Every structure is written in C-alpha cells, then in structure tokens.
Amino acid sequence: MTELHVLPGDLLPPVDPPRRHLLSVGDLTRDDVDRLLATAGSFARSQQRDNKKLPTLRGRLVLNLFFESSTRTSSSFELAAKRLSADTLSVKAAGSSVEKGESLKDTALTLSAYDPDVIVIRHPQIGAPQLVAAVTDAHVVNAGDGKHQHPTQALLDLYAIREGVGRLEGLHVAVVGDVLHSRVARSLVQALRLVGARVTLVGPPPLVPRELGDVSHDIGAIADADVVYVLRMQRERMLEGANYVPSLREYTARWGVTPERLRPGQRVMHAGPMNRGVEIDPRVADSDAALVVDQVRAGLVVRMAVLYDLLTTGPVLVETAVEVA
Amino acid sequence: MSILVGKCGAENIVIRGARVVDPTEGIDAVLDVRIDGGVVAAIGTVDTNEHRVIEAEGLVLAPAFVDPHVHLRTPGREDEETIATGTAAAAAGGYCAILAMPNTDPVVDSTDVLRGLRARALEEAEVPVGFTAAITLGQDGAQLTEMGELADAGAAAFTDDGRPVATAGLMRRALEYNAITGRPLALHCEEPSLTRGGHMHMGVVSAELGLGGWPSLGESLGVARELALAGDTGQPVHLMHLSARESVEHLRHARATGVRASAEATPHHLCLTDEAVRSLDANLKMNPPLRTEGDRATLLEALRDGTIAAIATDHAPHAREEKDVPFEEAPFGVTGLETAFASLYTHLVQPGLLTLETLLERMSAGPARIFGLDRPRVAVGAPANLVLLNLDGTWRVREERFRSRSTNSWLLGKRLHGKVTTTIAAGRVAYEA
Q: Where would a tag sit more exposed on chain A, N or C end, judged by fewer CB atoms within 10 A?
C-alpha cells in the first residue's frame, strides 16, 4: 500500500501568481515574445474586417496616464483598448492635478480608485512605472520612462521587421544616432538579442555607449546591415551645454542617413517623430525602403496583443479569441 | 572645551558573563564588568555592590561605536530628523558618539548656530554629539568661515559635506589656515563637471538603464586634488565616504609618500553594488553612488588593512514624500545608524570577509582616533561607552521600528543577523532592546 505523505506546504492555499506587468523588455522571455507576436498577427487579420471591434476585454478598464507628449503611443494604446472593447480613460499631465503639484504616487492612487485593470504610463523619469506598479493593484505597462525603456515599441519593431523582412533570427540591424538618450534603442537592442538578431550601434562617440554592444563611429558601418534603424536626436533630454556633438550640422554631415549611404534592399526604420533633414534625409523617409508607417500599424496590433496577454491567463487560443462582436 | 555634548549619566551597573571584546585593549574573554558612577571600575570577577545587574551570558560586550558622519537635519528639516530622534537612532545602533554634518538650513557656518545646536544637544541628545562646521560660508565655496572662532566654540571638524570645496585655490587656503585649529578637515571629493546629471555609477548598469552616470573619476579626481593639496601644505585631510577603487589607489599612494590622510567608508558601499540599482528603488540612490564588485572588493581590502580606518554611516534621512518618487527625481541618501552593525555583520563578518575584531575596531577606535575623540574602551577608569551585542539574534528591518524620524533605509524588509541589545553612552544607558 502506498503511504500518503502530506507536506506542510500541501495544506497551504494556492498562492496567486504575481501580478504581471510589462515594465521592461527584460521582463520577457523568448517564448513571451513569440506568443505576443503571434497574438498580434491574429489581431492584424481581425483588423482587415469591416467590423474591427472584438468583445474580448469588454467591461475592463485601461487607464492611459501620459506625463510626456505622445502621438503614436497614446493613440495606439487607446485604439487598441477600444478595439478590444475595453473602456479607456486617458489622463494627460497638462490640464490635470499634476499641474497643481500632485505627486505621481497620489495621481496613481487617485485614479486607482476606479479599479483600472491596466495602467499604461508614459513619464519623463526613469522608474515611474515601477513606482505605479508598487502602489496600485493594476497591471502596469511602461509606455516609455525617460531614457530607460519602451518595451511595446521594441515589440512592434520586431513585428514590423518580421513582416517587412520575413525573419528575425540572424538578421543584422544597425541602430544609428543618439543611443545614449534613447529608450527606444535600449529596448530594441535587448529585444533583438532575445530573438537572435545581431546589432551594431552607429553614431558619435559620446552618444553611443560602448557598454551596450558592438559600436562603430563610422556611418559606413550601416552598409552591412539588413535593417537601418534611425534614432531621433533627443535634444530635449540632453544636458545643457554638454556638447555631445559640436553642432547638428556636423552630425547630419557625418551620421545623417541619406540615400547615398544606403544600399538597395536595406529597410529603414524610425520610431518617430522624425527630424527630417537631421538624422534622416526626407528622400529616405519617403522611400519604399522605409517601414515607418508599417511600424505605426504594427503598434496597434502589438498593443492589442499586450493588453490581451496581460488580462488573460493560460495558453492563448488566439483564433477562438478573435470573434466578431 | 568638550567636542561632544549630550546627556550623560553616572549609573552603577554590573554586566555579568559577557564575552568582552576590545581589540585595541587586546581583550577577548568572558569577564564581568562593573560600572561605578558611569565609569568602568572593575573588570574580571566583580562584586555586584547592589548595582543593577545585566545578565549578558552569550552576548558580546564591546566598546560602543563612533559615527563620524551623520545628518541630523537640524536646524531646518526637523520633519526628517531632530537631535533627539537622530541620537535615539544612534543609541539603538550601538553608538556612543556621533558627528553631525553642517549642511543644514541655515548652514552651521557661524558660532551662533553652533552654540545653539550644542545647547540643545546638551538637553536632547541621547548620545553625545559633536557638531561639525562648514569650511566656507553657506558652503558656497567662496569665503572661509571663521574657523578659529568656530573651533573655540566647539566645532568638531570642518567640512562642506554634500559638495566639494569649489576650487583648488580655496581648498589650499582652507588647509593652510586650518593649521591654527587642529581640528580635522573632512572632505567630500567630487568633480561636479563630471557628475552633473548623474544618478548612479557610470558603467554597464547605468548604460543599460539609461540613467545618467556619476563616474568613478568624478570622485577619484577630487581625491587626487585633495591629496595633492594635503601633500603640498603638509596638513592632514580626512576623505569621506570613499566609493571607488581609483580613490583608494590614490590614497594608498599618497599615504606611502607621507601624506597624512585618513578615510572612511559606508556600510552601503561595503555591502552593495550598482547591480542593486536595477530595482530602481529610490532607497538605493546615494552620493557617491553604489559602484561595482571590483570597487567593493577594493574598499573591503582597504578596510581590512587599515587604509580606510573608519566606518561612517552617512546617515541621510529623507522625508517619505521625497523618496516616494521615480528614481531620477529622488534625492541622494539613505539612513544607516540603526542597521550599520547588523548589515556589516551579516554581509561581511558572517561570510568570513571581515573579522569581528576588525569590524569593531573600524566602528569605534578607528573613527575616534581620526577625529581626536576619546577612544571608547573596556578599561578601568574609562567612561562607560559600551555596547552589548547578540550575535545570534536575527531581526527583520521594519519601518515602524525605526527611532529615526525617516525610514529611507536600503534594508527595509531584510532579515539581519546581529542585534544591539544595550548601549551605554557617557555612563548612561542610552538604549535597551
């Protein structure tokens, strides 16, 4: 007869799994990325129908908290939530109690009274999403915190690359420009490594931290890449008088991405907003090589996938989830 | 004039059966200690003389600790710390003497402010406090304070802590002039043009997180300047809260060539590295910042061999609302008085990286010697400045248990080994668990 052993742990009630957030690409595994991209693909198919709305998140509340200006990210999170039938509430720093000196903690606690399921936050300071995650009960999605992370941007970039080039593994991506001040670059480099792509950082020495990977200060290095990812010169994040580059004129002359510096077949990406004529030549931005609009389109379905993934548990049966409302 | 002011006592106590450890006196044995009128009267097997008896079997009795670097935030930020709460925290941490930094509001740069603080400490301070005064008026780096008058009024040392003296020229003048006071000059070494916009150590972790870097060179260049000036003027300097390997290398080299220089390190720099900052917890933000494992190992080696002869907490209380913000917005500084011994015992002594004797020496005799204070000791005729430690005791660091008015500790929620059970400071029981 088999003896029955009861260990003390067996008598404890099951522990709730930790509340899931998307604060950094570092929170994701390769499996997570594959699952999210697959889910996004299913949602993309749903977006080709006349009725683009899905009932999946009906009755859920997605709170968008934007403390920094945004066109693409805020609009796509809002639309993503609406396409999944969630209620949305968008609060911007301008015109809110933030202008009266309310702290981030108090703003988060105040809006938590509405029991949001997800809080999407963009903030100029690193660590703001971690603070919101610590003081509220919602799933928190980092929509950009200072120079730190912008994980949904990295996911949508992977999606756009896979759609535009056909693969991720073994791909060579050159990331060009102001890496130092770029949360887009930090997230993307991590995400590309996760899926087995190779990255070269290209730009002026003070703006390309050696600690982040392979570095070249010669724009000629982009010739070897399958994808050229152009970063915005983030003048608003630069310390006054820091002299990262002597002048924008010199930057553009040496590191601007022009048609002459590209070779046929290369794809060009930019997270926007673009400084045309500074980091990217308008002829490149408007060319067929550019995936800029594809990135925006990918943003909607990838953010739908992220919201869906955070609010549903267990293996995702995407095809059954995609029902016309 | 006494440098230290605070409550004192004349208690009659017998501490029975403790393991007495005083590395400087060469004692490590189970002994009874009798205190008559606040002074150690007998060591060995002693009569109780109807004294109060503290049964201390299984505990360690050691010279109480001396912290040369504490921010009491008074005057100006009494919501963060007062003389009463800061010294109560010190007592709970096993300290019998602390030195308060002058970067208050107003700055301690005049004898009026200094005398006011000393008068209050006499009534409020649970353990004696020495007040340091600024090197420059308002710590603005332009005009020297009246160092002679301040020393006569009881200034424990001079420091512009929180920032460096702006120029090498003025620093040189301060060193020359300070020869008349004989009080130590305690220096915050930093080259601001390299640390501007910095929130953490500049390295792999800062690059990955995108946080502005505060490079090692930002400290070591300042250290090199102060050591060169000390050598040039022949005056001694004390280097505060060293964090970088390069700083220690400069210090070793200077000492080998005859420069009179001492240094301190904090528990957080000895226990943590910049990897901890990945959590973006604002209680891991300090100036100077947490550095790499290599820096930590160098500090530890310097602490072992005495190049760094003092452990200083740099206890820096901050209001809750100032630290409950995103990492970049948070001010620098963490508390440390109540956790210093336990954190170092847990992180360094238990894993075998540092002996208990060295830890006790660097927390007591080391800093006392540097600052010209009476060395706390277990010796007949010495004032009772003693701490009882339960090395087997474990405890969890909890907000509500702090005596300090602030709770910005890097150890919140952590379990530590080693408990202070009793602190006797200036002949008076200042703390009992």
A: N
User: What is the CATH number for B208?
Assistant: 3.20.20.140
Q: Which residues contact A143 (CB under 8 A, 6 or more apart)?
A: A64, A66, A70, A73, A74, A77, A120, A121, A122, A150, A152
Question: What are the percentages of helix, strand and coil residues in chain A, rounded to 5?
Answer: 40, 15, 40
Interface of A with B in 117-136 (CB under 8 A): 123, 125-128, 130-131
Selecting among A60, A147, A148, A150, the annotated active-site residue is A150
Contact B197 A239 (CB under 8 A): yes
Per-residue pLDDT of chain A (325 residues), as tens digits, is 455 565 555 555 555 556 689 999 999 999 999 999 999 999 999 999 999 999 999 999 999 999 998 888 999 999 999 999 999 999 888 777 777 888 999 999 999 999 999 999 999 999 999 999 999 999 999 999 999 999 999 999 999 999 999 999 999 999 999 999 999 999 999 999 999 999 999 999 999 999 999 999 999 999 999 999 999 998 888 777 788 999 999 999 999 999 999 999 999 999 989 999 999 999 999 999 999 999 999 999 999 999 999 998 644 444 444 444 3
Q: Are residues A183 and B210, on separate chains, in Cβ contact within 8 Å?
A: yes
Domain architecture of chain A: domains with CATH: 25-148+297-321 (3.40.50.1370), 152-294 (3.40.50.1370)
A53 is catalytic: no
Least Cα separation, residue B198 to chain A (angstroms): 11
Q: Is B398 on the interface with A (CB under 8 A)?
A: no
Query: In this structure, what are the phi and psi dihedrals at residue B208, rounded to the nearest 5 degrees?
Result: -70, -40
Q: Does B341 touch chain A (CB under 8 A)?
A: no
In a domain, B400, yes or no: no
- For the stretch A82-112, pLDDT in tens is 999 999 999 888 777 777 888 999 999 999 9
Kindly determine whether residue B327 and residue A126, on different chains, have CB atoms separated by under 8 Å: yes
Place of tokens 């997270």: A271
- Answer yes or no: B140 catalytic: no
- Contacts of A152 by beta carbon, 8 Å cutoff, 6+ apart: A22, A73, A77, A141, A142, A143, A299, A302, A303, A306
Which of A125, A149, A211 is nearest residue B207 as measured by Cβ atoms? A211
If one counts the domains in chain B, the total is 1
The chain-wide mean pLDDT, for chain A, equals: 90
Interface membership of B214 toward A (CB under 8 Å) = no
Supply φ then ψ for residue A162, to 5 degrees.
-60, -40
Token pair recorded at residue A156: 């949508």
- Catalytic: which of A21, A60, A122, A147? A122
Q: Decide if A126 and B280 are in contact by the 8 Å CB cutoff.
A: yes
Contact yes or no for B210 and A148 at CB 8 A: yes
Question: What is the domain extent for residue B249?
Answer: 64-375
Q: What is the pLDDT of residues A117-134, one digit of tens each?
A: 999 999 999 999 999 999
Beta bridge mates, A267: A227
DSSP string, A179-240: -TT-HHHHHHHHHHHHTT-EEEEES-GGGS-GGGS-EES-GGGGGG-SEEEEPP--GGGSPT
Distances (CA, A) of B86 to A301, B182, B406: 55, 27, 9
Instruction: Tell me the three state secondary structure of residue B165.
Output: coil
- Please tell me the pTM assigned to this model: 0.91
Which amino acid type is present at position B398? R
Listed in order, strand segments (DSSP E) in chain A are 61-66, 87-92, 118-123, 139-145, 172-176, 198-202, 215-216, 227-230, 267-270
Per the annotation, the verdict on A73 as an active-site residue is yes
Examine residue B226 and state whether it is found in any structural domain, yes or no: yes
* Nearest Cα residue in chain A from B277: A127
Give domain status of residue B176, yes or no. yes
CB contact under 8 A, A211 and B321: no
Has residue B331 been placed in a domain? Answer: yes
Rounded to an integer, what distance in angstroms lies between the CA atom of residue B31 and that of residue B40? 13
